[in-house]
Amino acid sequence: MSLIAPSILSADFGHLAAEIRAVEAAGADWIHLDVMDGHFVPNLTIGPLVVSAIRPCTKLPFDCHLMIESPEKFVAEFARAGADIITVHVEATPHLHRIISQVRDLGKKVGVSLNPATPLSLVETVLTEIDLLLVMTVNPGFGGQPFILSMLEKIASARRLIDEKAPHVLLEVDGGITVENVGTVVAHGARVIVAGATVFKSDDYRRTIAALKSA
Ligand code: DX5
Ligand code: ZN
Fold first, then answer.
1. In the chain, N or C: fewer CB atoms in 10 Å?
2. Ligand 1 binding pocket, CB closer than 6 Å
3. Which pTM value belongs to this model?
4. At 21, phi and psi to the nearest 5?
């Protein structure tokens, strides 16, 4: 059974606290927070201030996906704000190994993410140092984009690499996951499913999360 991490990017930001409580009550495992800086991706979303404001709403882990340049400048602030897992993009820093240690030293779990066009080989040298590998299945920046089908092969390759070198690493996928395609995604090896539009645009969070989880 997979872990489901609804992405609040598609939630009603006017009622963020209520939305988070609703997905927790509906069976979500983590809350996925998409942090965008307008440079690494062509969109701007939330910063540490919002993360700390919503921290009291839920006991669920905050899965903080940093789509920002120079993440080393901000990881401490996100840790203080209440992030439990901090994921950085390999494309966003020239010193991946250093930032992984930085997040660890903050006492947080550390994830590394790959854009669709970025080869899996870039994370091989750090695989044993991380807790989570996030394979993007859309180009990051916006919710509600279609799943890039060629990413299935990358998910399967990531699964093999993890099984061989670092079985403790959780394989997470993010972007375009639907009730229809989640079964295939899980069959290729994903274990943590991020879902934004599929959950928050549905009229029954509980039913949708249960359907995603049972895949
Ligand atoms: C994309 C974000 C995703 C996004 C997923 O840049 O990283 O987390 O919210 O949204 P859906 O599930 O709607 O594709
Ligand atoms: Zn995300």
1. N
2. 7, 9-10, 32, 34, 65, 138, 140-145, 174-177, 194-198
3. 0.98
4. -60, -35
- Residue 181: its pLDDT value, please? 98
Residue written as token pair 């921290």: 55
Q: What is the average pLDDT score of the chain?
A: 98
Strand, helix or coil for residue 145: coil
Q: State pLDDT tens for residues 82-120.
A: 999 999 999 999 999 999 999 999 999 999 999 999 999
Please check whether residue 124 is in contact with residue 92, taking contact to mean a CB–CB distance below 8 angstroms: no
What is the per-residue pLDDT across 180-207, written as a single tens digit (0 to 9) for each?
Answer: 999 999 999 999 999 999 999 999 999 9
Copy the structure tokens of residue 158: 């990531």
State the CB neighbour count (10 A cutoff) for residue 47: 16
DSSP string, 177-213: --TTTHHHHHHTT--EEEESHHHHTSS-HHHHHHHHH
Rounded distance between C-alpha atoms, residue 195 and residue 170, angstroms? 16
Q: For a substitution probing ligand 1, which of 174, 181, 192, 208 has the most ligand atoms within 8 Å of its CB? A: 174
